[in-house]
Amino acid sequence: MVCLLLLSCQTNLENQALASNLSAGNILSADDDENFALERNQLNNASWFREMYDAYEPDKNAISAIEKHRNDIKFVVFGGSWCSDTRKALPKFYKVVEQANVQASKIELYGVDHDKKSQENGGKGKSRSDEFGINRVPEFIVFYKEKEVGRLNEKPSKSLEEDLAKMLNKQ
Questions:
Q1: Residues 139/151, Cβ–Cβ less than 8 Å
Q2: In the chain, which ranges are continuous DSSP H helix?
Q3: What is the dihedral of CA 29, 31, 32, 35, to 10 degrees?
Q4: What is the rounded CA–CA span in Å between residue 78 and residue 61?
Q5: Contact 6/111 with Cβ under 8 angstroms?
Q6: pTM > 0.85: yes or no
Q7: Which residues on adjacent β-strands are paired with residue 28?
Q8: How confident is the model at residue 34, as a pLDDT?
Protein backbone atom coordinates (compact mmCIF):
# COMPACT_ATOMS: atom_id res chain seq x y z
CA MET A 1 0.00 0.00 0.00
CA VAL A 2 1.28 3.46 -0.87
CA CYS A 3 0.14 6.45 1.15
CA LEU A 4 0.44 9.94 -0.18
CA LEU A 5 -0.12 12.76 2.24
CA LEU A 6 0.38 16.28 1.01
CA LEU A 7 0.39 18.95 3.66
CA SER A 8 1.88 22.37 3.95
CA CYS A 9 1.58 25.10 6.51
CA GLN A 10 1.50 27.55 3.62
CA THR A 11 -1.70 28.30 1.80
CA ASN A 12 -1.21 28.80 -1.90
CA LEU A 13 -3.19 28.07 -5.02
CA GLU A 14 -1.21 24.96 -5.93
CA ASN A 15 -1.69 23.44 -2.49
CA GLN A 16 -5.39 24.31 -2.51
CA ALA A 17 -5.88 22.74 -5.94
CA LEU A 18 -3.97 19.64 -4.88
CA ALA A 19 -5.85 19.38 -1.61
CA SER A 20 -9.20 19.64 -3.37
CA ASN A 21 -8.40 16.40 -5.16
CA LEU A 22 -7.54 14.47 -2.00
CA SER A 23 -9.91 12.18 -0.17
CA ALA A 24 -11.12 12.78 3.40
CA GLY A 25 -8.30 13.31 5.84
CA ASN A 26 -5.95 14.38 3.02
CA ILE A 27 -4.72 10.82 2.60
CA LEU A 28 -4.62 8.95 -0.67
CA SER A 29 -3.83 5.28 -0.72
CA ALA A 30 -3.59 2.66 -3.41
CA ASP A 31 -3.40 -1.10 -3.47
CA ASP A 32 -2.12 -1.55 -6.99
CA ASP A 33 -0.05 0.18 -9.64
CA GLU A 34 -3.06 1.31 -11.67
CA ASN A 35 -4.53 3.22 -8.74
CA PHE A 36 -1.09 4.56 -7.82
CA ALA A 37 -0.74 6.05 -11.28
CA LEU A 38 -3.84 8.12 -10.60
CA GLU A 39 -2.49 9.12 -7.21
CA ARG A 40 0.94 9.90 -8.56
CA ASN A 41 -0.67 11.96 -11.29
CA GLN A 42 -2.06 14.28 -8.61
CA LEU A 43 1.46 15.66 -8.36
CA ASN A 44 1.21 16.74 -11.99
CA ASN A 45 -1.32 19.37 -10.87
CA ALA A 46 1.58 21.25 -9.30
CA SER A 47 3.52 23.15 -11.95
CA TRP A 48 6.77 22.91 -9.95
CA PHE A 49 6.54 19.10 -10.06
CA ARG A 50 5.53 18.76 -13.70
CA GLU A 51 8.17 21.16 -15.02
CA MET A 52 11.09 19.57 -13.15
CA TYR A 53 9.89 16.04 -13.95
CA ASP A 54 9.66 16.78 -17.67
CA ALA A 55 13.03 18.54 -17.79
CA TYR A 56 15.05 15.98 -15.83
CA GLU A 57 17.17 13.38 -17.65
CA PRO A 58 18.48 10.77 -15.21
CA ASP A 59 21.80 9.00 -15.73
CA LYS A 60 21.01 5.80 -17.65
CA ASN A 61 23.81 3.76 -16.04
CA ALA A 62 22.54 4.63 -12.58
CA ILE A 63 18.98 3.76 -13.62
CA SER A 64 20.16 0.33 -14.78
CA ALA A 65 21.92 -0.26 -11.48
CA ILE A 66 18.81 0.71 -9.50
CA GLU A 67 16.59 -1.44 -11.70
CA LYS A 68 18.66 -4.54 -10.83
CA HIS A 69 17.64 -4.08 -7.18
CA ARG A 70 14.04 -2.99 -7.77
CA ASN A 71 12.47 -6.09 -6.19
CA ASP A 72 14.47 -5.73 -2.97
CA ILE A 73 14.14 -1.99 -2.30
CA LYS A 74 11.59 0.19 -0.56
CA PHE A 75 11.50 3.95 0.01
CA VAL A 76 9.98 6.09 2.73
CA VAL A 77 10.02 9.69 1.55
CA PHE A 78 9.33 12.94 3.42
CA GLY A 79 8.99 16.35 1.81
CA GLY A 80 7.11 19.62 1.84
CA SER A 81 5.68 21.55 -1.08
CA TRP A 82 6.92 24.71 0.70
CA CYS A 83 10.53 23.49 0.51
CA SER A 84 12.66 24.45 -2.51
CA ASP A 85 14.84 21.34 -2.12
CA THR A 86 11.73 19.11 -2.16
CA ARG A 87 10.49 20.92 -5.25
CA LYS A 88 13.76 20.02 -6.99
CA ALA A 89 14.29 16.50 -5.67
CA LEU A 90 10.80 14.94 -5.57
CA PRO A 91 10.15 15.19 -9.33
CA LYS A 92 13.64 13.80 -9.99
CA PHE A 93 13.03 10.94 -7.55
CA TYR A 94 9.80 9.95 -9.29
CA LYS A 95 11.44 10.13 -12.71
CA VAL A 96 14.26 7.88 -11.45
CA VAL A 97 12.07 5.24 -9.79
CA GLU A 98 9.61 5.17 -12.68
CA GLN A 99 12.42 4.67 -15.22
CA ALA A 100 13.91 1.96 -12.98
CA ASN A 101 10.52 0.21 -12.89
CA VAL A 102 10.23 0.34 -9.10
CA GLN A 103 6.73 -0.77 -8.09
CA ALA A 104 4.45 1.84 -6.59
CA SER A 105 3.91 -0.37 -3.55
CA LYS A 106 7.59 0.14 -2.70
CA ILE A 107 7.16 3.88 -2.02
CA GLU A 108 5.60 5.70 0.94
CA LEU A 109 5.43 9.48 0.57
CA TYR A 110 4.60 11.81 3.46
CA GLY A 111 4.16 15.55 3.47
CA VAL A 112 5.50 17.57 6.38
CA ASP A 113 4.97 21.07 7.71
CA HIS A 114 7.71 23.64 8.38
CA ASP A 115 8.52 21.85 11.66
CA LYS A 116 9.19 18.64 9.64
CA LYS A 117 6.14 16.94 11.17
CA SER A 118 3.77 14.71 9.25
CA GLN A 119 0.21 14.61 10.47
CA GLU A 120 -1.11 11.43 8.91
CA ASN A 121 -2.14 9.92 12.24
CA GLY A 122 -4.63 12.65 13.04
CA GLY A 123 -2.43 13.99 15.81
CA LYS A 124 -2.70 10.79 17.86
CA GLY A 125 0.54 9.16 18.91
CA LYS A 126 3.84 9.23 17.08
CA SER A 127 3.79 10.32 13.44
CA ARG A 128 5.90 8.69 10.73
CA SER A 129 8.21 11.72 10.68
CA ASP A 130 8.79 11.28 14.42
CA GLU A 131 9.36 7.54 13.99
CA PHE A 132 12.10 8.21 11.47
CA GLY A 133 13.59 11.25 13.21
CA ILE A 134 13.06 13.61 10.28
CA ASN A 135 14.76 16.98 10.69
CA ARG A 136 15.56 17.80 7.04
CA VAL A 137 13.53 17.57 3.87
CA PRO A 138 13.42 16.07 1.48
CA GLU A 139 14.51 12.84 3.10
CA PHE A 140 14.61 9.61 1.08
CA ILE A 141 15.01 6.61 3.38
CA VAL A 142 16.22 3.56 1.50
CA PHE A 143 15.49 0.00 2.58
CA TYR A 144 17.11 -3.07 1.04
CA LYS A 145 15.60 -6.44 1.92
CA GLU A 146 13.59 -4.79 4.73
CA LYS A 147 16.65 -3.14 6.37
CA GLU A 148 17.40 0.57 6.27
CA VAL A 149 20.62 0.96 4.30
CA GLY A 150 20.84 4.71 4.01
CA ARG A 151 19.27 8.10 3.57
CA LEU A 152 19.50 10.70 0.88
CA ASN A 153 18.51 14.21 1.85
CA GLU A 154 18.45 17.79 0.69
CA LYS A 155 21.32 17.81 -1.79
CA PRO A 156 22.93 14.68 -3.25
CA SER A 157 26.71 14.41 -3.56
CA LYS A 158 26.49 13.58 -7.30
CA SER A 159 22.90 13.07 -8.36
CA LEU A 160 19.97 11.37 -6.66
CA GLU A 161 20.18 8.34 -8.93
CA GLU A 162 23.97 8.03 -8.80
CA ASP A 163 24.01 8.27 -5.00
CA LEU A 164 21.19 5.71 -4.81
CA ALA A 165 22.91 3.33 -7.24
CA LYS A 166 26.15 3.57 -5.25
CA MET A 167 24.28 2.82 -2.04
CA LEU A 168 22.51 -0.19 -3.56
CA ASN A 169 25.64 -1.57 -5.22
CA LYS A 170 27.21 -1.91 -1.74
CA GLN A 171 24.51 -4.40 -0.75
A1: yes
A2: 13-20, 33-41, 47-55, 60-68, 84-99, 128-131, 160-169
A3: -40
A4: 26
A5: yes
A6: no
A7: 4
A8: 40
